[in-house]
Amino acid sequence: MEIKAIRGFNDILPGEIGRWQFVEKTVREVFEGFGFSEIRIPVLERTELFARGIGEATDIVEKEMYTFTDRSGNSLTLRPEATASMARAYLEHQLHTFDPVAKLYFMGPMFRYERPQKGRYRQFHQIDAEVFGVHNPVVDAEVIIMLIQFLKKVGLEQLELQINSLGCRECRPQYREKLKSFLEKKSFQLCEDCQRRLQTNPLRIFDCKVDDCKQTILGAPQVTDYLCTACVNHFEGVKEYLSMAGLTYVLNPRMVRGLDYYTRTAFEVVSYDLGSQNAVTGGGRYDNLFQEIGGVDIPGIGFAVGMERLISLLPRDKGLVRYPDLFIATLGEDTKREAYRLANQLHLEGLRAEFDYEGKSLKSQMRRADKLKASYTLILGGDEMKRGKAVLRNMADKSQEDIPMDELAGTLKTKLLSH
Ligand code: HAM
């Protein structure tokens, strides 16, 4: 029986990989320019890290984690996100002793047992950036600016930045109570999940997709009306720094984000081309996460971009795959040896060259050169080779010329540059 990939787990094929590589390259360029360094974290962590970090009463921890017990009886989980792991790594390796401010980025697969549909997968990829160690709102703005700069650089235009403040340990409990008592009066209108959320985590009800719940929560009290003075000042700071940088934003007091670690600033960048899965990226501040996982008081802020969603929005011409610069067509065993020698030399010069391995007819080699979309084909006949020459064919305009073989690399480079 043919074995297929698991539902919600995708292959990324050679035809698509150019777009991924283009995005990854742009991440490195933009993020490193802002002083971020790459970190790589394991795929598996102790379940406890996510349960405590993301929050027991979130959808992710309640029902979306890939959790299993290993042969030694430890409960392990495939990472559903990167923030908690990055914070763990920062603490474990005492990165704060090098510099109290750490700016880190990461790219890689995440795993959530969600119902697969377009834009929602069980293995998906995130680009993640985090700053640890800064309370000041200037860094919230800087992180958002980096994100927008990155999204623009990859070619996205139709975007909306939404921001909110979710308050802190001081003021959120009051808001939570207000929201709860508002919803309790209408609890009979809520779905079964939200009836439960009302007791465990009423803010989650804002994210429910059930129509009755969406209707019920309309008119609910807004978190920004219950912020303490310190949170108001912090949020004002974020807005002021965003405006100073000329960024426009929309205030969305109903945006609560799906993870429990957030405090104060929360933001999302939404694309209206994406249908229902319209969040390309989300993030925010989490000043209590380090308390939860390590008992230390270190603030943090960051975001994650969903790579599949981002790539589905890229303009068509971005990140195309690299086609061969040259296909060397040969006639017989001797010329194949010469093609092999030439290709090795061209590879050293950084050119992409292909040749026929199997002794196919010239016609089928030319067909293959066409299919591979080679820019040029070099036709190596026995006679020309003896004279140290070969025919170079421009595959776009079909023009041909004789060129000396020892000038091949130089000639090709000049031609490819003038393309
Ligand atoms: P999140 O909102 O859960 O945040 O995920 C961030 C992004 O990952 C989403 O906006 C979406 O583009 C993508 N994403 C999430 N789930 C899926 C899925 N099942 N299939 C495809 N794409 C998906 C976080 O993960 C936080 N750790 C972000 C953060 C970093 N906050 C602070 N620092």
For the largest beta-sheet, the strand count, sense and barrel status come to: 8 strands, mixed
Number of strands: 16
The poorly predicted ranges are none
Rounded average pLDDT? 93
CATH topology of the largest domain: BirA Bifunctional Protein, domain 2
At the first level of CATH, the class of the largest domain is Alpha Beta
CATH level 4 superfamily of the largest domain: Bira Bifunctional Protein, Domain 2
Query: Which percent range describes the beta-strand content?
Result: 15-25%
What brief labels describe this structure?
single chain; 419 residues; alpha+beta; BirA Bifunctional Protein, domain 2; Rossmann fold; 2 domains; 8-stranded mixed sheet; 5-stranded mixed sheet; 15 helices; 38% helix; 21% strand; elongated; binds histidyl-adenosine monophosphate
